[in-house]
Amino acid sequence: MAGMGQSAEPEMAAEREKRMALASDINIQQLAEGASTVEGREEILSKALERWLEMHHVMGRGFITLDREIEIVAKLVETSTDDLNALFLQLVENAQSQSAGMGEIVRAASLVELGSETLTLQEIISYLEEVFSEGIMNVLQLAQTAMTLVYALDDVVIDVKEVVRHIGQIEQINKQTNLLALNAKIEATRAGDAGKGFGVVADEVRQLSKDINELASTLRTRVDSVHRGIEEGHEQLQSIASLDMSGNLKAKDRIEDMMKALVTQNEEFQDKLTSSAELSNQLQKDMSSVVMRFQFQDKTQQQLDGVRMTMSVLKDAADDLSDETYEGSGLPPIEDDSEVMERWIDNVIKKCSLGEMRERFVQGMLLKPETVSAVVSTSIAAVDDDDDVELFGDASDDAEQGDTGAADKGSDDIDDDIELFGDQAEAGAPSSSSAEAEDDDEDDDVELF
Amino acid sequence: MDYQIKNDGGSAQVVFSGDITFSENVSFRQLLKDISQQDVSNCEFDLSGVDMVDSAGLGMFLIAREQAETSGWKLTVSGAQGHVASMLKLTKLSDLLDG
Known about the structure:
Chain A is mostly helical. Helices cover about 85% and strands about 0% of the residues of chain A.
């Protein structure tokens, strides 16, 4: 990021100057001195060609290292996208499970299990209302029956009173009968012997009258007892019939209120569930939209492939030119990094702020990575702290793989070059035929895309 | 409980006042006898002046209804308010005796 923006311009200018100074290692002094002779000019040209071949060598390795980096980046984007995709799909699934769980809770809250029977809240309410109503109707029925009995007893009381009145009449008649018998006895006594028989009859009638009187008295006692019994029954019926039903009224109102509250609560549950389901659906749509956006990865992949392709074409062109240079100049193949090459590479490596990437550049760009120059070592130590910016733990794995790959490459550079960029062996050394190189290039294109 | 019978030809109206409880059973029975003697086809119990009715009172209404059915006249209630209206609704008598 430090290289971005206007503030970086002076820095870039300094860099340019440095590069020019590097290039001038050809030694301007010598160039100035030797330019006057043919031998001198040839030597300068030979030096320049040597530098060009060195530069081509370094650039070739740079292209390979960059190609590998691009591959790593593409892989990172791909795996990260896959991971995010899976995470979002899991989120959608969890949201759906949560919604289903809530639905189950609401369903369970609105149902009551009674053995093998399952009752809805409405059914329970209806049942309770029915039972309560039945109870009230029973009370009412009882009151009606009690009042009917009361009226029947009232009628009995009237009859009893009539019986009592009749008993009074019997007693009155009996009293007169007794008096008549007494008179008859007096008259029989006065008649003497002639009236003796009549006197016996009079005695019998008096005895009869006495018996009737006792019977009437017993009857009166019994009827009085019946009357008292009826009155007691009357009182009992009053206690049965006279219920203040205000309590029932309040109870009914309270039950109704409770049932309404239950129904309302259930409806609220249902509403909450509905909105939760809607949210879940919306979430699902949003997630699908997010997953769709992840298709940027395909485009990124294509763009990176395009960059790799461009790099490949540029490298092939440089390789061809290098081959021609070797052929024309007869210069020996480069077998070790010269001082200039190491400084170029140092400059590249120093620019890498990401530790693992820097490691890969060290391994990828130096012919002998174990001989990392003092300049690079210093710059690595200076930027080590920046490793904190590494965001993905997995990258260390990539770095290790990169290290291993680079180590292999260090011992078997040619194989790696062939694999990635056409014939690096030919690029590194004069090729016997440029046509062969072209063939290889075609193969590489097919291999890449 | 007091009552006043207004007879408008075949239709009678009984205007009640006070409470209708068990202790009024004799008066109520007398009322039923009075109505029977008046040869009516309809009888309306105006309960707007009644403050309280207990189960015995409701039982008496049911006896009146039975007597109406037996004697061939129709009984209705009207004007019930507050506690009385609630009691009639609770026992569903308002459905049975709704004018």
